[in-house]
Amino acid sequence: MALKFENEFVVDAPVEPTWRTLLDLPRVARCLPGATIEPVSEDGSYPGSMRVKVGPVTIDYKGVARLTEVDEAARVAVFNVQGKELRGQGSASATIRNSLAAEGDSTRVKVETELSVTGRPAQFGRGIMQDVAGSMLADFARALSEMMAGGETIAATTGAEREPNPAGQETLDLTGHVGGVLRQRLAKWTGFAALKRLLSKKR
Fold first, then answer.
1. Which helix (H) or strand (E) holds 177?
2. Nearest residue to 85 via CA among 122, 119, 55, 57
3. What is the DSSP letter of 43?
4. Can you say whether the dihedral through the CA atoms of 115, 136, 105, 6 is positive or negative?
5. Rg over CA atoms, the chain
6. pLDDT at 150
7. Dist CA 29 CA 22 (whole Å)
8. Is pLDDT larger for residue 62 or for residue 170?
9. How many CB atoms sit inside 10 A of residue 130's CB?
């Protein structure tokens, strides 16, 4: 299943430190539960893993992330992420284009994502996957803003090795996101059904 979607969020920090922080993948990974990023390899890629939980099912991905494009003047950075299930045939890959713009003392980040998913997550369907991605991005934005507000910023990306996140300590639990989306849709469908019944009675 291939998806394309756009999202925006605002970080409560100036554009320059936000830009430098977003270029530091190991630092940014701290804002996403379940993600583990190791120090950069000789080829410039970042090995990593992701643990995702949906209800009783836990899926572990192993893969790499790469910074494929950096436009300092335009404040545009493009990342490519690829992963495969450790215990299954599924895979996930994404190209993520981040565009930053100053908005007073804050920073507006526009995120354009091309996502391809196979395996168990693809069973949720296109609409739910898009809604869940938007909800996840909102959580990520809040975590990033909190990290920046707490002084967790960097002046520049040096390429020096950093300590990887401890593996296995956290899981990206999508149960609430998926359940919330399903509840919202059920409420919407129920509302439509009630309205339809009401209109039918008036005829």
1. helix 175-202
2. 119
3. T
4. positive
5. 19
6. 76
7. 10
8. 62
9. 18
Q: Report pTM.
A: 0.74
Q: 100 pLDDT band (50/70/90 cuts)? A: very high
Give residue 66's pLDDT: 95
At 172 the pLDDT is: 82
In the numeric block, the tokens 């149960």 are attached to: 175
First and final CA of the chain: distance in angstroms? 43
d(CA 38, CA 158): 15
Could you tell me the sign of the dihedral formed by the alpha carbons of 94, 100, 36, 182, in that order? negative
- 18: Cβ–Cβ under 8 A, 6 or more apart, which residues? 11, 100, 107, 109, 148, 153
State the DSSP string of 98-121.
EEEEEETTEEEEEEEEEEEE-SGG
Strand pairing class (106-117; 2-11): antiparallel
Measured CA to CA in angstroms, residue 185 lies from 61, 181, 182, 188 at distances of 29, 6, 5, 5
pLDDT per residue as tens digits for the range 120-163 = 877 777 777 777 777 778 888 888 888 888 765 443 333 333 34
Question: Which distant-in-sequence residues (6+ apart) come within 8 Å of 79 by Cβ?
Answer: 25, 65, 66, 67, 68, 94, 95, 96, 98
| Bridge partner residues of 103 (DSSP) | 106
